[in-house]
UniProtKB/TrEMBL annotation:
Keyword annotations of the record: Magnesium
Species annotation: Nostoc calcicola Ind31
PANTHER family with a match to the protein in the record: RIBULOSE BISPHOSPHATE CARBOXYLASE, RIBULOSE BISPHOSPHATE CARBOXYLASE LARGE CHAIN
Keyword check for Manganese: no
Top-rank taxon, per record: Bacteria
One Pfam family of this chain: RuBisCO_large
MF annotations from Gene Ontology: magnesium ion binding; ribulose-bisphosphate carboxylase activity
Domain Ribulose bisphosphate carboxylase large subunit C-terminal: 2-163
Name this protein carries in UniProt: Ribulose-1,5-bisphosphate carboxylase/oxygenase large subunit
Record-linked InterPro entries: RuBisCO (IPR033966), RuBisCO_lsu_C (IPR000685), RuBisCO_lsu_C_sf (IPR036376)
Signal peptide: none
Length: 163
């Protein structure tokens, strides 16, 4: 009835109960649920009293969603590579070994719980492609917004360059 393949939802502002309800509805209706994380920096960038994004990522995996913005390691949402890849792996892998250097403090076995696809977005453009593919691999989502529309020759060349 909606005639759309995907819904974008902010799980932090709406809350986990709303997200879980929407996630179940989307699965029942064959619609992808793209998760945004607006406001996350207010929660997870404060080292003294914040909640690390690793915890928010685990909560999302329990609550449900198909993909989420995770940062990029390059671009405007860059973060420490090991830590970023630690929570990316927590989102998409079924089993992950303890590795404190990546922020994985204990072995995590998700059993049959579906994974969440990491979306690299935020200030990325065609010149970041080699690094993004090397970091995230070819089983990832790379979202080019301003990096496409802000191409010096226009939108169409930006889309062509990113393709």
């Amino acid at each position: 009835e909606l005639k759309q393949p995907i819904i974008m939802h902010d799980y932090l502002t709406a809350g986990f109960t709303a997200n879980t309800t929407l996630s179940r509805w989307c699965r029942d209706n064959g619609i992808l649920l793209h998760i945004h994380r607006a406001m996350h920096a207010v929660i997870d960038r404060q080292k003294n009293h914040g909640i690390h994004f690793r915890v928010l990522a685990k909560a999302l995996r329990l609550s449900g969603g198909d993909h989420i913005h995770t940062g990029t390691v390059v671009g405007k949402l860059e973060g420490e590579r090991g830590i970023t890849m630690g929570f990316v792996d927590l989102l998409r892998e079924n089993y992950i070994e303890q590795d404190k250097s990546r922020g994985i403090y204990f072995t995590q076995d998700w059993a049959s719980l579906p994974g969440v696809m990491a979306v690299a977005s935020g200030g990325i453009h065609v010149w970041h492609m080699p690094a993004l593919v090397e970091i995230f691999g070819d089983d990832s989502v790379l979202q080019f917004g301003g990096g496409t529309l802000g191409h010096p020759w226009g939108n169409a060349p930006g889309a062509t360059a990113n393709r």
